[in-house]
Amino acid sequence: MPITKYKPSLFAVLLELLTYYLHFSDIEVRLEGNLYNHAGRVEVRMNGGAWGTVCDDSFDHDAASVVCNMLGLGYVLHLQ
What we know:
Layout lengths: L9 H12 L5 E6 L8 E6 L5 E2 L7 H11 L9
Antiparallel strand pairs: 1-2, 2-3
Helix pairs in contact: 1-2
């Protein structure tokens, strides 16, 4: 069986690096714009600054898994 190389998205890598090199409490992630707490638009805030929406150009299943993990949610069911 051939070995499949894992290639995470740029967003997933950057978010992992930021949480590794900075204190986790300095980075906040939330889901906005939906009635449910487990769905919505991803927003990020660092060091208590302004909330910013994450661009979805390179946002894939890996990035969604990182966000769900940061929010204490389960696995990704659907990515839109």
